[in-house]
Design goal:
The protein has 251 residues and is an alpha/beta fold.
């Protein structure tokens, strides 16, 4: 029997890159997966197709998880498809949006980045917890930027991911008495379209060569860590912000 057999998992931002790898991995471990996407339905369809082709169970749900009404819709869709219980929540939704220095940012931009990364995590967690029971697990995607302030023009992003890390610790304390564990992952340089878009090739090569392992990470390696944290094998781990960066930054 797979270690997540018949557990219900919601993955926000689950249609591509790290989110897709997580959705596929959880399904491979036996979970019934609610794959959330916001704009790219094609990517979501591909993710669900990959899961079902391998014999897994998944549904696709469109929702902008920075909006309360859409979050409610997401939770309702999960309950309609797989029952009222939610065992695993993975908050992947987020992004850098654009590199901007302090002088280039305005209030609207800063608030949007915070909403995309931190508020979304809050809204989905708040909506999912009433459907969680003892043994449930929440895994948030933070970032190495939340520890070190990020690269050039990434201060808003880094601030929002730092908020995710602190929210993780707070929820671990608050939800622990209910038997719900809350952890986050802090990826470093992972080979995704995030870095394809926001990081120059030369910088990526330099960062990779600076890690003790001398390479970038892979989305599947992040997914493996999520599957572990979601399982009973991690039953005494909560409140952690785990680095996945090839040794680039020690915390």
């Amino acid at each position: 029997m797979s270690k997540l057999n018949c557990k219900v998992a919601i993955v926000t931002g689950g249609s591509r890159d790290i989110g897709r790898a997580i959705s596929v991995k959880l399904a491979a471990e036996g979970a019934h997966v609610v794959v959330n996407y916001c704009n790219n339905k094609g990517a979501g369809d591909e993710t669900v197709a990959e899961i079902t082709a391998a014999g897994g169970k998944a549904i696709l749900v469109q929702a902008d998880v920075t909006r309360q009404a859409d979050v409610t819709k997401l939770i309702e869709a999960s309950c309609d498809a797989f029952g009222d219980n939610i065992d695993i929540l993975v908050n992947v939704t987020g992004g850098l949006v654009e590199r901007k220095t302090l002088s280039e940012m305005d209030e609207e931009f800063f608030n949007y980045v915070m909403q995309l990364n931190a508020t979304s995590t809050f809204l989905v967690t708040k909506a999912a917890v009433p459907h969680m029971q003892k043994g449930a697990s929440i895994i948030n995607l933070a970032s190495q930027a939340g520890r070190d302030g990020g690269g050039p023009g990434a201060s808003a992003y880094a601030t929002s991911k730092g908020a995710v890390m602190t929210f993780t610790r707070g929820m671990a304390k608050e939800l622990g008495p209910q038997g719900i564990r809350v952890n986050s992952l802090c990826p470093g340089m992972i080979a995704t379209t995030f870095h394809d878009k926001f990081t120059k090739d030369a910088v990526r090569e330099n960062v990779a060569n600076s890690t003790p392992l001398r390479r970038q990470g892979d989305a599947a390696e992040v997914a493996d860590s999520v599957a572990y944290l979601a399982s009973d094998a991690a039953s005494f781990i909560t409140g952690t912000n785990i680095d996945i960066n090839g040794g680039l930054l020690f915390s």
